[in-house]
Amino acid sequence: MSVELNKKLNDSKFTRWMALGVVAFTMMAAYFVNDVMAPLKTMLEGQLGWGSTDFGFYTGAYSFLNVFFLMLIWGGLILDRFGIRFTGKLAAILMVFGTALQYYGITELADSNSVYFGYKAGVFISSVGYSIFGVGAEVAGITVTKLIAKWFKGKEMATAMGVQVALARIGSQAAYTLAIPVAKSFHLDTPVLIGLVLLVGGLIAFFAFSVLDKKLDKQIKDDKTSVDEEKFSIKDVGAILSNPGFWLIALLCVLFYSCVFPFQKFATELMVSKYGIDADFAGSIVGLPALGALILTPVFGSLVDSKGKADNIMIIGAAMLIFVHLTYSIPSINGWWVATVLMIILGIAFSLVPSAMWPSVAKIFPAHQLGTAYALIFFIQNIGLWGVPNLIGWIQKEFCISETINGVNQYDYTIPMLVFTGFATLSLVIGLLLKVANKKYGYGLEKANIEKK
Ligand SMILES: C[C@H](NC(=O)[C@@H](N)CCCCN)C(=O)O
């Protein structure tokens, strides 16, 4: 009887998964907007005169405010201080505002001749918008990760994180698949407009989730058996930073993701220029990892929940990435099917590492430090998401222009792919060190998540 009385919203399987579905929609819209401009790189160069450095600057802008104005750190502190609902709403509003500004940059300012800080007005304002969007998207990301840790504690936590990431990847896949055909059928800016509409839907979805979350908080408060969660204090930042597990996860995260997200942003062009894949179809190939992750991330997540072995899974994922990027770098291997198979392998790696890495953070840190821990890890990851596209854009401009057709540069991707291979190799080394640290400090990364009844 008392068990029934203490039943909370998240004890019902249906309700906790429904709550996850609602916030997952917000993240799906965020991932759509995040990736929707990437397949348009060549069209942006042809129609708006955006060169590779402009594109690299714009792509890196996603992380600019997060890195240089420490927005992610503030976001994490706000999350641990003011909670999931406030932070999530704030993040969703920032995403809508940033995307609206980005849209303005590629519509109203498309033909402007003004130059700000050495960049065309359209490039600069779109980048400012994308930067604001990036703050919202990253803060939404840590908020959702923390809310899953809260709603799924002692339950299917890694599966839930996997499902959320998988659903978000539908947004990425849709962006990569639809951007070029939609831009060709309508207008170059239409894909961004679609993203803006989706984000407004995502904002409404987060408000709906907040109603459920408020109810859950009340139940937790009323439940005499639930243990009061320790409040976050600024001293926790020191505790997080002095934990070797934090640095290893953060380094693995920045290195691994630096060879996935920034690579994908340039990959549509790689598919067309090196592998001769039709431009209308190239985005769908680049979206394959997202599609694969849709199925595989929850599968690997439930494996981590039931069997553990997160440490080994991260190592295998990193090793696969070395193979993929090294093969992409070899000039004589240029069959379209090789490019496709490699993208599928990248998709498997891209499912293995996140499904093991994100739940591992929840094992290393207590609940009240989680928001800040995720924020600090995302912060370090964002240094890569800012620096790597800028680096690749610069390398392309300086060393990789192979020819110019109708004023549009063609790029050779050998050096950029070797750079990505280097990052992947370092991520493997860090994965191995994490395994050693796991043994030494007893994080329990090899253990299953689901509590045995
Ligand atoms: C959960 C994880 N998210 C991130 O790493 C974000 N910091 C960056 C998201 C960028 C999306 N293109 C993930 O997506 O695996």
Summarize the SSE layout with pairings.
Layout: H1 2-5, H2 13-36, H3 41-48, H4 52-68, H5 71-107, E1 115-116, E2 119-120, H6 121-151, H7 157-185, H8 190-222, H9 235-241, H10 244-258, H11 261-273, H12 279-286, H13 288-307, H14 310-329, H15 336-364, H16 367-399, E3 401-405, E4 408-411, H17 414-441
Antiparallel strand pairs: 1-2, 3-4
Helix pairs in contact: 2-6, 2-7, 2-8, 4-6, 4-16, 5-6, 5-8, 5-16, 6-16, 7-12, 7-13, 7-15, 10-15, 10-16, 10-17, 11-12, 13-15, 14-15, 14-17
The structure holds ligand L6ULR443.
Please describe what this structure looks like.
The chain is mostly helical. It has a single domain, classed as MFS general substrate transporter like domains (Growth Hormone, Chain: A). It has helices at residues 2-5, 13-36, 41-48, 52-68, 71-107, 121-151, 157-185, 190-222, 235-241, 244-258, 261-273, 279-286, 288-307, 310-329, 336-364, 367-399, 414-441; strands at residues 115-116, 119-120, 401-405, 408-411. The strands form two sheets. A two-stranded antiparallel ribbon has the order 1-2. Strands 3-4 form a two-stranded antiparallel ribbon. Helix 5 packs across helix 16 and helix 14 packs antiparallel against helix 17 (414-441). The two termini are 18 Å apart. Ligand L6ULR443 binds at residues 31, 34-35, 138, 141, 165, 257, 261, 354, 358, 378, 381. This is Lysosomal dipeptide transporter MFSD1. It is a multi-pass membrane protein. It catalyses: L-lysyl-glycine(out) = L-lysyl-glycine(in); L-lysyl-L-lysine(out) = L-lysyl-L-lysine(in); L-alpha-aminoacyl-L-arginine(out) = L-alpha-aminoacyl-L-arginine(in); L-lysyl-L-alpha-amino acid(out) = L-lysyl-L-alpha-amino acid(in).
